[in-house]
TrEMBL record:
GO terms for molecular function: guanyl-nucleotide exchange factor activity. Residues 1-10 have a biased composition (Polar residues). Residues 15-28 have a biased composition (Basic and acidic residues). Residues 1-40 are annotated as: Disordered. InterPro entries: ARM-like, ARM-type_fold, RAP1GDS1. This is Uncharacterized protein. PANTHER family: RAP1 GTPASE-GDP DISSOCIATION STIMULATOR 1. Gene3D superfamilies: Leucine-rich Repeat Variant.
Amino acid sequence: DETTHQSSQDCPIGDTDKDTENEDKGTDKPPPPTPLALTGPSLALRSVVQTLRTQVTEPALAIVRSLDRILDIGIETEGSEGFAQYTAGLRELDVMSLVPMVLRKYGFSTEVCRHCALLTQTLAEEAEGDTKLVAMYETGICDLLAFCMHQHGYNPEVSGPILSAIGTIAYPDANLASMLKTPPSGQEPIYKYAVTALETTPDEYFVVKSVSYLLSLLLNADSEAAVPDLYLPPLVHLIGHCAEAVVDTEEAVDLSCHLFDCLTQYSVKAFSSCYEVGAHFTAIHTLKAYPECEVRCQKATFLLCTLLAQAAEEGKEEEAVGVMVRAGAVPDVLAVLEGHADNAEVLDPCFDALTALMLDDGVTAKALYEAGTHTKALRVAATFPANPGLVTSVCRHLSRIANDNEDRSTALMHMGAIKTALSVMDRHGDNDEAVLFGLVLINGIKDKAPEDEFKAHLIEIGGHEAAIRVLKMYMTPDTEEGVAAVSEAAGILWNLTYDDKTFRPDIFNLDNVGLLVPFLGTCKDDERVVLSVLGTLANMCHCDTLRDVLFEMGVHKMAHEGLKAFPETENSPVIAESMCEIIMQFAGAGMSNVKTLIADGCTEWVVGALKQYGTDPEQSDLVLVGLGALGYMAEEDSHVKTMIEMGVLDTVESVCAAHADNQEVHGVGIKVRETLEGKVR
């Protein structure tokens, strides 16, 4: 009999002598004074529990039989009306109090420990609310079970059920999961027992599964940015099991899912550790080995997405993408995409993984385009229009396919990609990411598609109206995605208003001016919004009616504030160009405006912009509007001397020298110089 007695002092926690004394008297926990007001299973359960409470001096085998009967009643009634009576009986008879008592008395028995663990899991599963589970934890049952596991040399027959029971108790409450790291005085933390169990029996399915589950709970509960050292030892074991789980059985699939969930959480907090031990290779291996297994493919591609996202955050994206591409990730993910065309849960991470693997080099984008992923993406968007996550992934993927390439951008436009984006934005207007990446796709195509053709197509299908709707939706954006959506929507209007001599009334109108200008205040700290809104307003200044309104609103001052906020970024010259364009348009409307602009300090602003950015040969447009603005300022006689004193002539000469091959710049520069010099004479 495997229940050979050991001394009670070898058993784990608590005052064993006192417990034994109470057990011998049969007074450890008397049965409830009133019988259950239930029938059937509850009465059978009551009989077994009463017997168990009086069996404290019986051989361990008798205890096992009683515990087994308690579990059997639950199995027999599961799925029937009697199961409610059974669970009610577990609570009213306080069966939980039996488990520590039995473990302290009979913890030497493998079967007793196993049955106590199974009963604990049953009780945890039926506990009503987190408070009941906290109460279970506070009985010390988790520490007691863990110590029993240690006492039995991590026998997998004991370790598996014990670890599973502990995980069930800890699951709903992050604080409970965190307690697994906090041992009672003089004892190892529960988590270390779990790691030892994994190292002792690394090939036991139930142990590996339970440890990976506990690890997931701990990682999820831990608020620290970095993973503590105590989480790292089992990582190699888990990676190995993922890679070696080559049996396509239900158990193997279930284990793979647990392991991939655990590795995904690991990668968020310990990317370097996951990357160094080859978590990405494990995911790619799984895609190669099981392209037909939906759940494995979904978990593996999601792990790849998470690893790539973390690599980007740590500045290692280029390296990680290169390694994964060379390892064959692209064709493997493509095969999964093709094989699971009707499964949204698999398709979503597939598109995200392929998008991340494209990076910005254009090589992978070209290969994926040639493989037809854009066609598949458009088909998926049409098949799953109500799935916001999936259609967002599709828009993100298509925008990366365009990737500053005219042929691909034009083809996507002709295939209806912009219509797809508008449909996503319209259907999922309450989803910030869906709206944002619909706009990103439109702007991605805009950047390289033939300009006139793009504008005509976008207006024909109502793209300008969609952009205006987005701006109205996010008047006071409170999320990062909302602010980015404002930038993208204003960017569309910036493009549509550029060089538009017809001044379309559905775009060039006072309502849209009133819509755009406030963003220079509400989003003044976001460079993208300032850039695109000022660009649009600069274009709108060409319309006489709107120009006068914008002048009265003081938009030139807002433009200067925008440039002051972002003086040394990649977009600073473009912001400066918009400011100079606005000032030039206002000044061109008459001398009264010129005097106001001079009084506001606009001459200094323009000269400063020309000095800082105008000597760049790439900034000829900025120089033209800057010199144009100075030309209007020079018409004000009383201001000429001040302009000369602030070095306008030297500034004109230096920017003209920097643009020696640009005849238009030289022509405007000569005109400004002649005006100033003529008035001085």
